[in-house]
Amino acid sequence: MPFSKDAVSYINDPEFLLKVLDSSPDGFLLSDNHGNVLYVNEAYENVTGIKRDEILGKNLKELQEKKMFNTSVSLMVLEKS
User: Fold this and answer.
1) How far, in Å, CA of 63 to CA of 48, rounded?
2) I want to staple 3 with a disulfide (CB 3.0 to 4.6 A). Which of 7, 33, 48, 76 is the partner?
3) 1 CB contacts (<8 Å, ≥6 apart)?
4) What's the whole-model pTM score?
């Protein structure tokens, strides 16, 4: 196992994982397997100019149809699976 037992306990902690994503300089958008937006970090907002409250809980397909963004990689992955 590449992680210590202590590290595994952190990895299994959702609050810790959200803190990691929140502190990342990279933009993250997480969706469920239906394309509903569950999480967006601040870096995503800064990079795209799209605010969390505009897309949280919304469906990626609907957002793409409304021209909120040109391409959704998450949506492409969901359509192929």
Assistant:
1) 13
2) 7
3) 8
4) 0.78
